[in-house]
Write a structure and sequence with these properties.
- This protein is an alpha/beta fold.
- Helix content is 44%, strand content 13%.
- The chain has a five-stranded parallel sheet with strand order 2-1-3-4-5, sandwiched between helices.
- β9 (256-257) and β10 form a beta hairpin.
Amino acid sequence: MSHILIVEDEAIIRTALRKLLERHRYRVSEAGSVREATTKYRLSEVDLIISDLRLPGAPGTDLLKLAGDVPVLIMTSYASLRSAVDSMRMGAADYIAKPFDHDEMIATVRRVIGKAAQSRAQGPSSKDSGRSISGMIGDSPVMRELYARIHKVAPTDATVLVHGETGTGKELVARAIHEESRRADKPLISVNCAAIPETLIEAELFGHEKGAFTGAQTAREGLVAAADGGTLFLDEIGELPLEAQARLLRVLQEGEVRPIGSVESRKVDVRLVAATHRNLRQLAGERKFREDLYYRINVVQMTLAPLRERGKDVLAIAEHLLEKFCAKVERPTLKLSPEAVQAVTTYTWPGNVRELENAIQRAVILTEGNGEIDHHTLDIDLDLVPVDEADPDRHPRSLHTDPREDLSLEDYFARFVLEHQDTMSETELAKKLGVSRKCLWERRQKLGIPRKKTRRLAAEA
């Protein structure tokens, strides 16, 4: 049973969070300040610290220095988002915005505790084997595992099959494997099988003799032969036509290639790295991909995690791209505003690194002056409402002096809306709760709290 320490000065939030975590079988301790946390408990003996950012006395970020290797999850509102971003850079495991729902909190807690346990289990030697690779950014557990596998497999001649969604950077994996292999001084030939017309793919890959087909006015060496001695990277191999698959199988089995229209074969020594975002096993079962080729290329599998599963790597990649594009247009390096960081780290990035790259490049071009890039310029599908950090009513505090033991976070949200919706507009309610109007509307629907007409609207009706 994992032991979690909650450091929160607002009793209503602390009690609700304790009840939530205990229902999910966590052992929970509580403190109202950093001083109380350090005097009552040995921080090294807990598995996770969940701390509010703003506490009486010392701020929650002080726990980052005192907790050692224990991960710290920072709770914040949009009003203090700038400080939350700074805490991430100081070493916080993650942050979560108030008010949060139960599923979001439990999922975050599980992820942070799981990552910490995996990091402890790796040990020094495993961490060394997972050292980063030139050209690839990220220090998340999934990336360290990928680095370790690349270091292990690259010196061999084993065929590698890379799985990953579109835009995750599968070609970077192929390049890393090639550069760490004994073939590094030989060519790396990259081919996107989905980008070449089906009628031309065989001629492109395997070459052709003069007159082999209409338009073949001269003999031409194929890309497989061009990769002789080096590495052939076939991206989106699932799009390769069945006829071309049969020729590729011969290259792998016999180590020879026969150009179209030729009666003679040529010996080649090629290491294959293939990549796909499709399920090749399923395609083989549907007879859309040769089963014998699937088993031939499926020697070592590597998986590139989508951007949404890589935690703080997203921010590191975004800042690297920001520096790169600012240098490209010869302007001082811009910074992401706290709201932009919130957008970058919250958005699911269905297009992965490619989509992030486009968003950063667009923002660099459209941002005027040498200030910050805001979330509007990033132009991604998030509805964030920035709140003035100087606003003393940044989020509701201590609505009740004697909090009910069974009051959940959703009860807290619902009670605040019901008590104040007659005197506040939707915009004011959203600002008080530290959420967007869209989020407030969604919570109303979920909790069954219909929006009441204001007196002014009722009078007009």
